[in-house]
Write a structure and sequence with these properties.
By secondary structure, the chain is mainly β. It is built from 2 helices and 17 strands. The strands form 4 sheets. Strands 9, 10, 11, 12 and 13 form a 5-stranded antiparallel sheet that branches. Strand 5 (70-76) and strand 6 (85-90) form a beta hairpin. The chain is elongated and about 85 Å long. Residues 237-241 have low confidence and may be disordered.
C-alpha cells in the first residue's frame, strides 16, 4: 500500500514524475508517460480516418529499499534549481534529503539512461522508532522557493530547518529551530504560500490540560452535581464540545519563521 506521494521533476528537468512511499519501506519513482495512439476506422467509402487517442501510463524508473518504516514525504525545490528533491521522515530519528539523477552508461550510449539517487543530508534530531514525541510523523515545506521545512511529531515537538545554497550550488541545511508547544496533539501540518514574506506553516492541533488541572476539574464537577437535583444533572450532560473537562476543540495554529531573526513564533 502507498502511504503518501508527491509530484515534481526529480530525475530530469521538464518531465513530470511521481514519488511514492510504500508501507514496506520502499521509495518508488514513476514517470508520467503520455503517448498518442492512432486508431483507423473504415467507413462506407473505404476512406480511412485516423483518430488519435491519448494514453497515459506510469513507468517505474527507480525503486529504493530503505529497510525502515517510512512516515512522511514532501517535495521541495530550492531557489535557483531546475529539479526537485525530496525530504523523507522515517523511524530513524533523522530527516533525509534525497536527490535523483539520470546517468547514461559510458560503454553503451544508445541504451536507456539509468536513474540513480544519493542522500544529500541526513541530520539526526531524536531517538529511533515511531515515538509520539519524536518528529517525523508530519512534514511540510515552504511552497515559495523551498526556503524552509517543518517536521513535527504527534505530540508537542516541532522543528524547522532552513535550506539554502552555497557558492558552489550545493544545498545546505542549517541547525534546527525549535517550535515546541507543550500539551499539544497534532493532526496535520501544511506549508502556507505567503509569497516572498516569512515562511508560515499551519498546524491543526488540540491542546489538552495538565493531569492536575483535569483532576481538579473533575472533582469540582462532581461537587456541583451533588448540589443540584436530578433534572439539572441531566441537563448538564448536554455540554458543547470544547468546554473544559467535557471535550477539546481543534485549533488552527500558525508558525512563522522570521528569516532575519532566525526565530520561530
Amino acid at each position: 500500500s502507498i502511504i503518501t506521494s508527491a509530484i515534481g521533476e526529480f530525475s530530469t528537468s521538464g518531465v513530470q514524475e511521481i514519488v511514492c512511499l510504500r508501507a514496506g519501506g520502499t521509495i518508488d519513482l514513476f514517470r508520467i508517460v503520455i503517448t498518442n495512439v492512432s486508431s483507423e476506422n473504415n467507413d462506407d467509402d473505404d476512406e480511412e480516418d485516423e483518430e488519435e487517442e491519448v494514453q497515459t501510463t506510469l513507468k517505474l524508473l527507480k525503486r529504493v529499499e530503505t529497510r525502515s518504516t517510512l512516515r512522511s514525504l514532501t517535495a521541495i525545490r530550492i531557489s535557483g534549481s531546475k529539479k526537485d528533491v525530496i525530504l523523507v521522515g522515517a523511524d530513524g530519528g533523522c530527516l533525509s534529503l534525497l536527490a535523483f539523477d539520470t546517468a547514461t552508461p559510458p560503454n553503451n550510449k544508445n541504451s536507456d539512461a539509468s536513474v540513480t539517487y544519493k542522500i544529500i543530508h541526513c541530520p539526526s534530531f531524536g531517538k529511533s522508532g515511531c515515538r509520539r514525541d519524536t518528529p517525523g510523523q508530519y512534514l511540510a515545506s515552504d511552497p515559495r522557493g523551498g526556503r524552509a521545512v517543518m517536521i513535527a511529531s504527534t505530540e508537542k515537538r516541532k522543528l524547522v530547518y532552513v535550506l539554502n545554497r552555497d557558492s558552489g550550488g550545493n544545498i545546505t541545511i542549517a541547525s534546527p529551530l525549535e517550535a515546541h508547544r507543550p500539551r499539544t496533539v497534532v493532526f496535520d501540518l501544511v506549508g502556507v504560500d505567503n509569497g516572498f514574506d516569512n515562511p508560515i506553516f499551519a498546524s491543526l492541533e488540540v491542546q489538552y490540560p495538565e493531569y492536575e488541572d483535569a483532576v481538579l476539574a473533575e472533582r469540582k464537577k462532581k461537587t456541583d452535581e451533588e448540589d443540584h437535583d436530578k433534572m439539572e444533572e441531566e441537563e448538564k450532560h448536554d455540554v458543547e464540545l470544547g468546554q473544559h473537562g467535557d471535550g477539546y476543540t481543534k485549533q488552527l495554529a500558525y508558525y512563522e519563521l522570521d528569516l532575519g531573526l532566525n526565530h520561530v513564533s
